[in-house]
């Protein structure tokens, strides 16, 4: 019998396993996919020019201490986000303007003042300690900023933040969830920043999945069972069994479930989770958080003075960044196709999705019809809603009123089952750092509860 069975080998599951092993627990990890990493997935380019990060990519070594420690320990090489050059805002299908990166785009003085007021209000709120407010949980983010007096253009900008940050529209989730997310992640400005003060400062030269692969090595490949989707989890009070679609059954004293809460309903958990846990987790949603990564022979946008960053109200790409890695001559624009526009785009066939993205890039960069923009050397797209073992991204979001209403049960242990995942993290929730943090916390919970159990039986 194992001391601990971990379901899922994303970063939270791997970290939970490693922390538990370090405390001396005999641990096994059961993963559905044929790889570790979950929502971090780096695919090698056919040209040999590095990797396309189809999931998580950006990190900050100082603000995110767990990621920082691993990067140093494993000697992983990083690339600083390139910011030099002009950015672009696409206001509608045929209107775009360029602006110096880092300044508020071309708003009227009244709109600029209004945007700064709303942004500063949320920033101040997101630096306050304490739990989210019930009143803010019953109102959508969109309504919240309109109640603060957001002008239409500013409400549109807030919607863009929601799409970029969570793959949802601002009218689809609560202000409390949004503000608390910022609170756990060092404030709105740190989340939005692409320089050393924020979450998008660096990327992994050899792909983000290298982090998961290295942690998996620490856990020990023989302790990780890949390609074993879990189909049922039984808590018998004295022990737990975890059964896979491949017919294997693992027996342990405790289990950690590290899959997104939106997917608990797909695991046959017996006895059933308490009704309030079922109610809150059944109502969580995952956003439409998709990437199209367009790789070129050379970074043509730089020679025209652009830094590759653009945002768009027109969509379907709502934000793009230069994700090149000089050392491997990898030159790419990563396009986020999120929220409602992403939902529509994901229904298209692959060649249509590619055509739509290239056409939009041409408009955004004001490129000629025969321009280099239309001549990528490789093109990747990834729709996380289509992934059977993710069903969307970035992290599950609770329904209106649920974040505060179910805080006493959401993510809390039930019998011998413990729950981890980036969604539960108190630091950098939604990020790789958050997944590591939650895995660490969940494993410590298990270690403590097993110690108690042992003492009770002495
Ligand atoms: C497009 C995109 C961009 C992102 N950008 C960033 C970024 O720039 N920076 C950043 O820090 N983070 C980013 N993230 C978020 C980051 O990737 C996640 O927060 C983190 O990887 C989540 O880890 P997790 O362990 O909580 O969940 P997951 O990675 O979802 O892990 C869950 C694991 O459980 C497995 N599983 C599911 N069902 C079963 C089953 N039935 N049986 C067994 N196993 C199962 C899955 O295969 C998976 O391996 C991004 C994510 C996406 C998708």
Automatic annotation (TrEMBL):
Q: Does the keyword Cytoplasm apply?
A: no
Top-rank lineage group of the source organism? Eukaryota
* Record's keyword annotation contains Flavoprotein: yes
Name the catalysed reactions.
a secondary aliphatic amine + O2 + H2O = a primary amine + an aldehyde + H2O2
Q: Which residues does UniProt call coiled coil?
A: none
The alphabetical list of record keywords is: FAD, Flavoprotein, Oxidoreductase
Domain Amine oxidase residue range list? 11-446
**InterPro entries associated with the record:** Amino_oxidase, FAD/NAD-bd_sf, Flavin_amine_oxidase, Flavin_MAO
Q: What is its EC number?
A: 1.4.3.-
Q: Which cofactors are named for this entry?
A: FAD
Q: Which family does it belong to?
A: Belongs to the flavin monoamine oxidase family.
Would you tell me the protein name for this molecule? Amine oxidase
What organism, scientifically named, is this protein from? Answer: Aspergillus lucknowensis
